[in-house]
Fold each of these.
Amino acid sequence: MRSHDPRAAWRDAFRAVRAETERRAAPLNPEDQVVQSMPDASPTKWHRAHTTWFFEQFLLVPHLPGYQVFDASFAYLFNSYYVAAGPRHARPRRGLLTRPDVTEVAAFRAHVDQAVERLLAGTAQDKLAEVLRILEIGLHHEQQHQELILTDILHALAQNPLAPAYDATWPSPPPPTATDFAELPRGVHRIGWSGEGYCFDNECPAHDVLLPPAHIARGLVTNAQWLEFIADGGYRTPALWLSDGWAVVEAEGLSAPGYWQERDGAWFMLTLAGRKPVDPAAAVCHVGYYEADAFARWVGKDLPTEAQWEAAAAAGLIDDAFGTVWQWTRSAYLPYPGYRAAEGALGEYNGKFMINQMVLRGSSHATPPGHARASYRNFFPPSARWQFTGVRLADYPV
Ligand SMILES: [Fe+2]
């Protein structure tokens, strides 16, 4: 519940998000926090510092009079992709930063935390709305990185032959139960964000789409179904694959979802809780768009478009929409009609990435609480498999 004083409520929200990042980093020792196992995955220490830089750069420097940056060199190290915010360290080389160490990054976080609280308490009433607007973006930004902390450390831990657990008590999401399809009727459906509350700019403007009659799976594709796909030669049958996808199968030798290993005829997978036998009932995870697409073709079905997914979720037609795995859609990540990126560096947040990526909908078991909604658009390149990504099917009445 929000209290009557909006400043106190925002301070509490800020504290909660910042604490959640630290809670996620807590099981990781300093060595864990430095490793970058591939260019797309960033070290935990970098995530902790980058999310802090975001508040410093976009909130404190412009809005807190007299604010002293913690270390002027950090902007170069911890700016991710904001060209308008200045030059930055190369993304694939983030894992080479042994300095600042985790202790100094913790001090950076504390410095910025205190300054943000000072700003919140001291901002004049007529400037508060703009401060809160940027603070809110910063909180949602940090929540996105909270999920990345887990996906990226899982990729790092997967490079270790000992298959260490991030957290041996990390719970698996409950397996999907529904196996039938819901009917999504023909009609004009409103998609995109409208109403109160927060959304990213890529969820706007809300607009109408005409959808054909479709069937959308109530549940998610399971490991049992994926094992059948493997056994039927799914990864060895080029006719099932897009040309680009087959090139990835061949180049990377794909034969199963990410983090799967076959040992003496049994399948195991690395999870945040360590190496586990593949549970046939669980939703398949760590498959890329190319695999999702090939699987759908093998079953003789489709993937939903993002508009179909959103309309079905908004209508309560589907289970497991949130909290298990992100679900690949057939939709390319494009601007909605009338979308315009904002001016300035924060306008670089989403708009410039609207090419060569596919939209995922829902959320995963690693998505922080309060960071999921029906209009949310996640996006990754079609070959990406290190996120918690799975499959929901759709098809069309004959
Ligand atoms: Fe970021």
Note: The first strand starts at residue 181 and ends at 184.
Amino acid sequence: MYPDPQSRSKALYDRAVASLPGGNSRTTVFMSPYPIYAARGEGCRVWDVDGNVFIDCINNFTSLIHGHAHPRLVEAATRQIALGTAFGLPTESEIDLAELLASRLPAVDQLRFANSGTEAVMMALKAARAFTGRPKIAKCEGAYHGAYDYAEVSLDPTPDAWGRNAPVSVAYAKGTPENVLADVVTIPFNDPDAAVSLIREHGAELAGVLVDPMPNRAGLVPADRAYLEALRAVTRETGALLIFDEVITFRLGYHGAQGLWGIDPDLTTLGKIMGGGFPVGAIGGRAEVMAVFDPRHGKPALPHGGTFSANPVTMRAGLAAMELLDEAAFKRLDALGGAVRDGINTAFRKHGVPGRAVGLGSLLKIHFSEREIRDYRSAYVTAQEARRQAVFSRGLLDRGILAAGYGLMALSTPMTSAETDAIVAAADASLAEVAAAG
Ligand SMILES: Cc1ncc(COP(=O)(O)O)c(C=O)c1O
């Protein structure tokens, strides 16, 4: 249930706006007129400060693959906290996690840890520049990769800024320097011919091509294999590095998206689920490329520090989370995701509401459109679609389901068919409201 104006959530928000601009530290948790404040979580449920309980389909924006307070993760983290939370020395924990991740990801020989996906993407782009000696990067229109200036170019261009044909580089934040825009080549997602010709055009200056194989903000539709193969071929041809942002897609399979698609990038960025619920990021790749970080022969090509990088609490919780996430767990998550997508798609048809659920594995996104969704532009919501999305989201909340306001859902291993049935039933009832509202 969305809390009423007499609720503790509302009172906390009134207090928050005095000390936090807009009342919070993350635009993503902003909710109008006020957000729901969390009190605690357990398994796949969250309790708010007013005692309401929700099935959590946000999972901290996909980062909690085992839900909340999983006993094995609590044990791993608290054991380490008692031994010390961070040292000015390396610990064995980062070797353990690096070995596990490298053993799972086909294109990763070595890794470096960081504290967020933003930082991982920033270091990957800097690594591409350091390795190639070139200044520019290419990224897909509408794809989110965190807050590094270069990575957030053309994240949300409005139709009036789309340009005639090929995407143009558009600032996301006010104050983005023109030089940043000049050093970013924006390519369309899932259009191999256009992407290849732009990459060739800037070939001699291009250090890296950054791509998320299933970009959430650009529709959460999987990349066509032909698209990723074209990016792999053209980056080999021009000498740019291919960088897969797997901060979210590492959720899709035991060997990541690179394993699912069977394509080896030169660099991979990770974050979210691999930290076991703690802040985390990582950059991995071929040893030859990762050598830019190597300090054994004097100042490295790319110095990389970070006071909390590879802190042992995150490393130990991350290792426990990854050990729990075996191939059987992925199989279960795929089945849960399939059941929710199928159930919601049936409900769309039943109520005659245009739209569908897309996604793969434990991730899904609701679109209120029958257009073929292939990229940012085809996923771009009309005013009517946004209104329907808002009615639907509120309907889910009132029925005890937490999902991102823009239609993203991420499932977790503690869920069973009881929860997926409850999610589908809530979606069905909410779609009836959407149909009634027109
Ligand atoms: C694909 C992708 N890359 C990078 C990031 C940035 O990660 P973080 O929020 O940990 O900085 C995100 C965050 O949602 C993401 O979805």
Note: Residues 327-351 form the longest helix (25 residues).
Amino acid sequence: MSGTRGEGYTSSMRTLSAVVMLLAGCDTGTVPPREFEGQAALQYAQTQLAFGPRIPGSAGHARMATWLDSLLRARADTLMVQRWTHVSTKGDSLPLVNFLARFKPASTTRLLFLAHWDTRPRSDAPGSRDSTLPVPGANDGASGVAVLLGMADALKRLPPEIGVDLLFVDGEDYGDFSADADVLLGSRYYAAHQAPGATPRFAILFDMVGDKDLQILQEGYSVTGAPDVVDQVWGIAERIGQGAVFKREQGVSLTDDHIPLQQAGIRAIDIIDFTFGGPDNPWHHTPEDTFDKLSAASLQVVGDVGMAVVRLTK
Ligand SMILES: [Zn+2]
């Protein structure tokens, strides 16, 4: 994931999108019961880190794929597995796998949630102590997957009224964002090979959502690409008491897995805690992106918002 400063968006757009939200039939009154388990999500993150780096082609990547496959088969109605080979700009053949865990696959009203499950082969942030080391990928990788897995548990316990798809994309973080080379591989593949059936009403990407000092600003391309979705999701966050974390402030614009989905016509937003050069992300793309930086409470907040979006969408 990489980016630049984005443009603002106006309050008139916000008003317009609120009207659109009402027309779309969003329930505006009730607060659904809390059902996501942040502590269990933190355990899912710990399990991922125990596999070692999940770099495409590595042993840790293969072990994690086996684990995800069996875990998702036990929870979803159907599991769609996409396997393909990507030849990198350096000529390496990467075995890549996307997993799509589907709940109520025949439902025409659908939501899509996604996260990347791979980790970066190089700790090449400017401040990294050793750029040759892989990124452990606690916040950058494991946190988003942990939220999706916690949601899978909740959806298994109480099936959704609408269709829900949980997409685990591979190869987000393999290559060079500045050259647009070998990055966002899984989301690009999925955008070109979407599941059969209805297009999701919108999609939510979770990335870097587990650190202890969680602040979710409104990512720039989400605001420009799907302003009504941003407004609806932030409104739900406020309704369940998480308005202090989900701030109605413009964040940076990031090249992340929501972009290929937007380009394929899916209204996708990025829920991410990230500011360039800010004090809140000192471990991004460094060897210090480790389990001790994660917080069950932060995963809880994001998982609660995700589940509330599911339960409140009609
Ligand atoms: Zn990354």
Note: The longest strand covers residues 93-103.
Amino acid sequence: MASRHSRRSADVVVIGAGVIGSATAYQLALTGRSVIVVDKMKGPGQGSTSASSAVVRFNYSTYAGVAMSWEAKHCWERFRDYLQAPETETLAKFHRDGLVMLDVPVAPVARAAALLAAVGVPHEVWDAATLSARVPALDTRRFGPPKQLSDPDFWAEPTERLGALYLPDAGYVDDPQLAAVNLAHAAERAGAVFEFGQEVVGVERDGERVTGVRLASGSVIGTSATVNVGGPWSSRINDRAGVGADFRVQVRAMRQEVHQVPAPSSYSTDAEPGPVVADLDVGTYVRPSAGGNMLIGGTEPECDPLQWVDDVDGANLNVTVDRYEAQVTRVARRFPELEVPPTPRGVAGLYDVADDWTPIYDRTALDGFYVAIGTSGNQFKNAPTAGVCTAQLVAAVEGGHDHDAEPVVVTGAHTGLAIDLGTFSRRRPPNTSSTGTVIG
Ligand SMILES: Cc1cc2nc3c(=O)[nH]c(=O)nc-3n(C[C@H](O)[C@H](O)[C@H](O)COP(=O)(O)OP(=O)(O)OC[C@H]3O[C@@H](n4cnc5c(N)ncnc54)[C@H](O)[C@@H]3O)c2cc1C
């Protein structure tokens, strides 16, 4: 993708060309605004998006969260239409393999099912016998709460069994970075301009209104509206803009590892893929991956220290033996036929975690400065809708709407669902229904 340096002002500057920044730029450009996207990396989706497991599911702890994800699912299913992409463009693909979420106290199935029913998302509640019959590879015993490998109880043989929530329409997107590239191409077709290899180091203001962004090169792009979609770097960008004092929810970067191992054929093969399994009972999630593999990620179990990161640029993005052994051995309890290869493979990445694991899609106290941040390891799936929501938020507020007093409500184009952006306000009381994990 060529960088262009000719236009040095735009109606809106988007900081960050990850999956959410690119979707935001696309939707803003569709509203007829001139848009410049600035990213310090060399192309779209090279930040935290590149490490994403890209699981698509609909169980969140708020109505707006469920509605947003259900609306986004329709965009992934019709991704070419959403992008208005030519038939010749290779697109990231949504795999509808279903998702099983084990019933655990921290995320009870009954609570999730009630919200899914309210929104109208198809789901099934399975008892342990149904779970065994539908996913025979899986040992349905209650091993939790999650334990460290050194805990003598790790190898205990419990007898109680777990049921689950089943979401037939869930799944995953097979190439998260390609999804961001696809969105960036769509944004370009709609008129947005991308500038890569450029770091935003300052936000210019005239009193309480944004007037431009300053780049490391020293040049300034003039604009009256800027969206911070900086992923794990978002706090640093907010600091540079001098916003944050009125935020009731803070965000912070957290390191995570996702490992890849051969999937037991009883769970998943390329010809017969198994469902995604969200398993807070052992503190992991798994999903099928091409080549007969499976991806294994963590769900922040209490027994593991959280890996908060202050120096985002200095974070270790290699997998570690300790984390690999912990996550993969836990999954091996759930899938007895899983063989654990001796050498770790996988990726490490950073979440931009909000205190309540719920994103912030909002304006700020600085007029013209918006944020799409705090994506908490769970917003890849929502990117197509997050772009729509952020574009409508910018349009409403720039048009004079008082979003703080009367939050913008977005209507899903595919589902007709109302997505109340007040749920994602920077000034909300922290969401006490959240699981306090990546599930949100
Ligand atoms: C390991 C892992 C697994 C995940 N799994 C899932 C999942 O299964 N399902 C799900 O829904 N979500 C998942 N997520 C979360 C999801 O991937 C993220 O929410 C999403 O990718 C965030 O996209 P983004 O565009 O906001 O941020 P990013 O992709 O991080 O993009 C931010 C961009 O901003 C740029 N930038 C930052 N600062 C500046 C600056 N000052 N100047 C210029 N550019 C700047 C960066 O270079 C970067 O490209 C996962 C995340 C990780 C890390």
Note: The pocket of flavin-adenine dinucleotide is lined by residues 15-21, 38-41, 46-49, 51-55, 199-200, 229-233, 237, 256, 258, 297, 349-351, 375, 377-381 (CB under 6 Å).
